[in-house]
Amino acid sequence: MRASAESNMPRNFNYADAEHRLYDWWERNGWFKPEVAGPDAEPFVVSMPPPNVTGNLHLGHALFGALEDLMIRYERMRGKAALWLPGTDHAGIATQLQVENMLREEGVSREQVGYEEFLQRTWQWKEEQGGAITRQLRRLGASCDWDRERFTLDDGLSTAVRQAFLTLWEQGLIYRGPRLVNWSPGLQTAVSDLEVETREEQVTLYYFKYPLKDGGHIPVATTRPETILGDTALAVNPADARYAAYIGKSAIVPILGREIPVIGDDAVDMEFGTGALKVTPAHDFNDYEIAQRHQLALINVLNKDASMNAKAGKYAGADRYDCRERLWRDMAAAGLTIKTTPYTTRIPRSQRGGEVVEPLMSTQWYVRIQPLAEKALAAVRRGEIKIVPEHYEKVYFHWLENIQDWCISRQLWWGHRIPAWYREKDGDPEGEIYVGSAAPPEDGWVMEEDVLDTWFSSGLWPFSTLGWPAESDDLQRYYPTQVMETGHDILFFWVARMIMMGLWFTDKPPFHTVYLHGLVRDKHGKKFSKSLGNVIDPLTIVDKLGADPLRFTLITSGSPGNDVNLDETRVDHTFRFINKVWQITSFINMNLEGDLELGLPAVNELDLPARWILSRLQRLIANVQHLFDIYQYGEAGSQILAFMWDEFAPNYLEISKHAMYAGDESEKIATQRVLVTVQDTCLRLLHPFMPFMTEEAWRYIPHDGEALIIAAWPPADEALIDAASESRMNLLLELVRELRNVRSEYKVDPGQRITALAKARPAAAKDLEKYGFVFSRLCNVAELQLLSSEDPEPANSVSIVVSDITLYLPLEGMLDLEAESQRLENEGKRLRQQIDKTRVMLSNDNFLNKAPAAIVQRERDRLADLESAYAQVAERLSSLSR
RNA sequence: GGGCGAUUAGCUCAAUUGGAUAGAGCGUCCGGUUUACACCCGGAAGGUUAUAAGUUCGAGUCUUAUAUCGCCCACCA
């Protein structure tokens, strides 16, 4: 078919104008929707990791946006029903904190405004702020199906959450009970193990005397003296000769005077501290286990805000740290203290807010996770789900093999209320529990106030967003999804839980591949932080340079699973690459007139440069395809860039000017068709990386189809791979390189058109004769004259030797015989070294027998070339010295 | 204490069935208003691929050890 291109192409790509225009155009035409591919198309579905609904776009979002949009656009071009399903997360703690901060600025607390009002304010905040993150994703070019956008607290997802909870409850996999939990005193909620981060910190280790009832004492060390008030035993190792005799005796809790037993337990490390351990089961996980073994009492001495409670005696009401100081002073006064030493240990802090978390007894809801974990382990072990990069599978296995029951209740207001009701029985207000999708009809039932961990709803995301538990059309067509692309930091939080819940509720792996990306850091590998002042706002980059440069840079700056260090000079460089692609398009555009037949001329109508560039193009397509298949998008992008910037633009474009300006009509058209084909292919390959510029540029070359976004992904055409043309052309390009080099070395005025004389064997001579214009275009050689082998060597010339070709550049007046001899000698030495090396290799029987034939042949060819070149250099040297 | 990853040019990074002279960008130096592009073009310098041993015809790539850095997991008070 024939097609024409739009004319009047602007000199530069105006991203600011084009980005909005194109995005609207794409969306208006329904091209983000999977339906564009037709009902029989194979689906390709990615569930977007839902960002915090009130969040703002940061580079982490930009990275996942760039990667997922790349995958989606690629599969869309391959004809799949590509669905990128977007959405946002209510993000329980994070959002609640934001609203609480807002209230604090108004001078009120959450408790003061009350539950109903607080929820209303939070919804209002969500409505006001909730659009920001999705608007920002649009600016990146994210081709999501916005009609299918979901929110973890919307009605459908709330139904899914209740259904999941009820099912697990009915299966006996949810239980409620008092346990020691990680308690966040500031947030006043339980948090899961995963939400606690421990970091080494400098603290004090307090040594003191634990008085014994019968007199004397046992020395003990602790980092948290206030927990002494909750001690219910003193433990020593039965094998410890110092203390074994005291087992069975009683000790007296300092200040409080409570009597507690001295017990023996292997868990006590004789080497550490004093070798004796105070046991506080209500405030220490380790002690809790000891208490279970010895049936010790639990005494909780902390309130929910981490102040001391009535059990702490005279310290009741004091903050935990005040109590620590006061108690220590009092103990010192009583002669019970020994010493304090500085000590480095890991302190547990809340991931949100960073306050020190306290182990505290409280009643919480748990998921008995073992059965779910086993399915999730099996799915990855059997290869039904693959993790990229693969080494994360080990991490995944280790976590799931050692998984603890999941505390799913949170004492927050913003979230999914746990569908449970309590009724008073025998004086216990929670004596009866009812779990169901709605309140029981009778009077007297009070709904559970706790909400579910945000990750409970996120865990259902791949199928809840498609309509589950209803057997909706979308669920049938688009579930299971294909790739889960997300950060490795939420492998446990989210990915593992999606796998567990997906397998449990739908009996299918929710996706077949997990692609993990790393953290985006600054150019020196430092985490972005406000205090360091190194934060880079992706939208500032988008405003300044456009979305395409940011996307391409993020994708090509790292490899899967590894952190991405973002160097802003690379964004600038990509910006220039985008301009380069635009300029190539512009060149082609201005060298077309009217219609052009699309596709390539017959191979026998193609000249050497055309065969060469098309062969290179096919190799590029094949490489990119392979790299996409193994998720190496960064390398794929770099290869496209290298092809366009280092081969197509500087060489083929320049060479094509010959046919374009000096060729006959058929040469001209053939060349135009090659140019258009190569550029069309490159734009298609680049589209998933930089959708805006490529879409806009595509309009300016003749093309078939309405839009690049829905154009077909190019297949590699093996028939066009032409190794012979590549090596013939490489010879010419190598000569060009050498020529430029010599010109530069001899400081020949770049504007000066020089003459070159050549001696070559017949085959190469033919190419030199026919394609002499290559030298004219690429290194300003006005004329290339072929000499016969009988011709004398031109006097006063510099010579260039490549393979079996010698070029002579008569540089009258510039030639320094001494320097030229030196140059040739160096060249000869270099060749000699390589010849020796290659000969050694080729005389090694092991190499000849074991290396693949193609490799051996390559070395033989290389040796022939090197020897031929060496002979010419040697001859040239001897004639210079005559 | 266990596990994982990284270590390549001054800086930031590539190099995926092991195969030619280890590539880019930024920075540095030299030279250019060549009608697609100064958001450009040409040239140059810069590397014992952390160290040591091993496997192999051949190692940046595979194995082992060491060093340094980073991350994850774990109940030494």
Determine the N-to-C terminus distance: 64 Å
Q: Which percent range fits the helix content? A: 40-55%
Please, what is the average pLDDT? 90
Give the uncertain stretches in residue-range form: none
Strand tally? 31
Radius of gyration: 37 Å
Output the structural class. alpha/beta
Tell me the β content.
15-25%
Biggest beta-sheet profile? 4 strands, antiparallel
Indicate the overall shape: elongated
Number of helices: 27
Major beta sheet, strand line-up: 7-6-15-17
Write the layout of secondary structure elements.
Blueprint: E1 2-3, H1 15-28, E2 43-47, H2 59-77, E3 81-85, E4 87-88, H3 92-106, H4 110-113, H5 115-140, E5 150-151, H6 155-170, E6 174-184, E7 189-191, E8 196-211, E9 217-222, E10 233-236, E11 250-252, E12 259-264, E13 276-279, H7 285-294, H8 320-333, E14 337-350, E15 358-367, H9 370-381, E16 386-388, H10 392-401, E17 406-407, E18 409-410, E19 420-425, E20 428-435, E21 446-447, E22 451-452, H11 454-458, H12 461-464, H13 473-478, E23 483-487, H14 491-506, E24 513-517, E25 520-522, H15 538-545, H16 547-556, E26 564-566, H17 568-590, E27 596-597, H18 608-629, H19 633-662, H20 665-686, H21 691-698, H22 723-745, E28 754-759, H23 762-770, H24 773-779, E29 781-786, E30 797-802, E31 805-810, H25 817-842, H26 845-850, H27 853-881
Parallel strand pairs: 2-3, 4-5, 10-12, 16-24, 23-24, 25-26, 28-29
Antiparallel strand pairs: 1-27, 6-7, 6-15, 8-9, 8-14, 10-13, 11-12, 15-17, 18-22, 19-20, 19-21, 28-31, 30-31
Helix pairs in contact: 1-21, 2-16, 9-10, 9-14, 15-16, 16-17, 16-19, 17-19, 17-20, 17-21, 18-19, 18-20, 18-22, 19-20, 19-24, 20-21, 22-24, 25-27
The protein binds one RNA strand of 77 nucleotides through β9, β13, α7, α10 and β26.
